[in-house]
Amino acid sequence: MHTNYAGEYAKAQVTSVDRTRLLLLVFEGGLAFLQRARAGLAAGDLAAFGQNLGRAQAIIAELLGTLDYEAGGTIARDLARLYDFMLAHLTEANARQSVRHVDEVLAVFGTIAGAYKQIIERPAPAAG
């Protein structure tokens, strides 16, 4: 009986990853889908544009839906406004086939993703 050790290891990694790392992976995926959507639109590949745009929208909608307003307070409300803006802008990008709209979402999403990455990768303060 042959066992797929690499597959089992990968599955174990995904199930054991902590929530902060998982969120970082979600942001990285969102950026990748936005970049692919932009590239597809710029190249005139509307199928690739539509597929990747839909995936990016799903990620942003999921991020919006998982905000904890009670614990997050003002930050959660501000993020909700940014996610709403991005979803509306991507709808416009789709309707107008507008690279500019995708670029504007990429800038906002990239800023949020970069800030989150800096926060989780910051070294812990030394105990003293």
What are the defining features of this structure?
128 residues, mainly alpha, Four Helix Bundle (Hemerythrin (Met), subunit A)
Describe the secondary structure blueprint for this structure.
Blueprint: H1 5-16, H2 19-42, H3 46-65, H4 69-96, H5 99-121
Helix pairs in contact: 2-3, 2-5, 3-4, 4-5
Mean pLDDT: 89
CATH fold-level name: Four Helix Bundle (Hemerythrin (Met), subunit A)
Helical proportion? over 70%
Give the radius of gyration: 17 Å
Whole-number total of structural domains: 1
Oligomer: single chain
Largest sheet: none
Order of helices and strands: HHHHH
Describe the 3D structure:
It is built from five helices and no strands. 84% of the residues lie in helices and 0% in strands. The model has no long low-confidence stretch (mean pLDDT 89). It has helices at residues 5-16, 19-42, 46-65, 69-96, 99-121. The radius of gyration is 17 Å and the shape is globular. The protein has a single domain (18-121), classed as Up-down Bundle (Four Helix Bundle (Hemerythrin (Met), subunit A)), CATH 1.20.120. It has 128 residues and is mostly helical.
